[in-house]
C-alpha cells in the first residue's frame, strides 16, 4: 500500500488549543461523530447559561454539576486514551499530548463552573463562567478538539486491526496456492476460513460505520465478492488438486485467487482512504449526473445571467449527448427507443439554442430581473432534459427486464452441466458460445443501467454487477471445460455447480438492483443502502454455529404478508416525512432514514426478497435496527434540552415510548430459540416490534420538524459534518434544561463509545 493505515486517519501530529486543529481532523465514521454529540450537548448548556441575567440557586447548582460531570467524564475518557497509548507505541506521543490537552481543558471547565457556593459570582473577584466569557469558549474548543483527536487516533487501532487481518488472510492464501496434497489443503483451508470470518466481522462493522455512502457501497461490493469467492476457492482448489495437469482447472483456480486479492486490496483502499501508486479514482460520469448538473446551471440563470458562458453550457450538453451514444450505438437497444432518444437529443439542442438567444438578449439589455421569455426558455430546456432522461431510463430498464425474463430458466447453464457430464466437447463449445453472448448482453445492460441509476451507491452496484458477469462468465466456461475433460469427476461437477450458482445469484441481485433503480426514478425511495453485517462472535452468539439459518417457507410468508404490508406503508410514511426536512444532514433525519431503510429490508424479507436471506439475518438486522432507534432517542433527548418547558412534554412522551420498544426488540432479537414454530414466533415478534418503532417514528419526525422551526434554531441543529464547531454551540436552552440529565449524555455514553472503539465491541 502507498499509504500506511496510520497516515489515513487525517489527524495532525501537532497539538492545538483552538479550532485551528479542526482543519487537521477529519471525521470519517459515525461512531466518532456520535460520541461527540453528548459532549457538545453539555458544553452547549454551559455556554448558553453565561449570559442569563437572572440566576437562581438551582441554576448555579445545575451549572456546577454539569461542569463536574464533564470533568469526571474527561478523566475517565483520558484513562482509556492513555491505556491505548501504552499498548500502541506508534501512537503514544500523539495520544499523550491529546490526553494532556483534554485533561487541562476539563479541569479548566470545572474551575470556571465552580459557582454554586458564591452569592455574587461576578463581584467575588474570582474568575468564573460569568466573568470570563472567552475562557469557557476557549476551554470548550480545546476540549472538543483534543477529545476528537483522541477518538480519531483510537480509530487508527480499528484500521490497524483490519489491515493486520487482511495480511493474515493473504499469507494463508499464498500457502493454499502452493499446497500439493488434500490433507495439507484441508488443514490450511480450515485456518483460512476462520481468518475470513474474522475479516468479515471487522469489515462489516466498518462498513456500517462509514459516513460516505459511496465508500460504503464500494465496501459492500468488495465484501460480496469475498463472500462468494470463498466457496469458489474451495472447489476450484480441490479440482486443481484432483486434476493437476488440467490447464482449464489451473486457469479457473488462478482466476478466483486473483479476484479475491483485488477485493482484499479494495477493502484496504477504502479503510485507509488511499490509492496504490498514486492512482485516482475516476469513474466515467453518468448521464443522470451530467443532466442534473446541466439543469442546475440552466436554472442558475434566474439568479445570475453572467456566472457562466454560453460555450460552457453548450459543452455540457454536448457531453450529455455524447453519453447517449452508449444507448443509440448499442446493438441491444430497440429501434423505437433509439429513435425516441435521437429525437429528444435533437430537441434538446434546439431548446438550448433558443435559451442562448434569449439569454444573450437579456444580457445586452442589462436587465436586473429575469424576463418572461427567459423564464419560459429555462422551463422548456429543463423539461426537454427530463424527457430525455425518461427515455434513457425506459430504454435501459426495459432491456434489463427483458433479459432477466429471458434468462430466468437458466437453460444455458443447465445444458452446460448436462453436456459436461456427458463429455460432449462439441456441445459444450456450442453452449459456451451462447453463455459468452449472454455475458456480453448483461455487461452492456449493466453499463446502461449505471447511466440511469440515479444515485452514486447504485452506480457502484451497477459497476460491481458488470464486473461480476465479466469475470464469472469465463470462469464458468473453464469449469465446464474441466468437467468435459473429466466427466466422471465429482469434484469437477461440484466446481461447475458452484460457479453456476454464483451466476444465478448475480442475476437475482440484478433483478433487485433494477427494482431499486425504478424506485429511485419514481421517487419511492431515496439514497439508501440496507446494512447487514455478520453477527459478532461473543457470549451472545456462542451458540451461533449450532443454529441452522433457515428461510421462511411460502406458508409462513403468507402469514406475515399483512404485517409486512403494514410495515411497508409505515416506511413510506416515514420516507415522506424525512423528505419534508430542508436540511437532510440533520441528525434526526439521518437516523430516521437509516431506521426506515432497515425496516424496508425487513419488509422485503417477509416477501422472500432483499438482502436478508435467513431468519438469522433478520434477527441480526433487528438488533442493529433497535440500536439505531436508541441512538435516535438520545439525539431527540439532546434536542429536547433546547426547547422551552411548554414545548417539551409532547416530544418527551414519544421518547418515553420509543426507548422501551427498542429495548424489547433488542431482547427478542438476542433470545435463542429452537424449532420451526418458535423461530416463526420470534420472526413475527421482531416484525411487530419493528412496526411499533416505525409508528412512533412517523409521529416523532413531523413533531420534531415543527418544534425545530418554532424554537428558531433552524434545520442546521445537530448537523453531522462538524458538530463541535462554535456555530453549532449557539442554541437556546431553558435554564433548568440540564437538571437531572447529566448522566444521560456526559459520562456513560462517552465512556461507552470509547470502549467500543478500543475493543471493537459491537453496540
Automatic annotation (TrEMBL):
Cytoplasm keyword on record: yes
The UniProt record lists the keyword Cytoplasm: yes
Keywords: Cytoplasm
InterPro entries noted in UniProt: Alpha-catenin/vinculin-like_sf, Alpha_catenin, CTNNAL1, Vinculin/catenin
GO cellular component terms, A-Z: cytoplasm
GO biological process: cell adhesion; Rho protein signal transduction
Gene3D superfamilies hit by this protein: Alpha-catenin/vinculin-like (1.20.120.230)
Protein family: Belongs to the vinculin/alpha-catenin family.
Principal localisation: cytoplasm
Subcellular location: Cytoplasm
Protein name: Alpha-catulin
Annotated GO MF terms: actin filament binding; cadherin binding
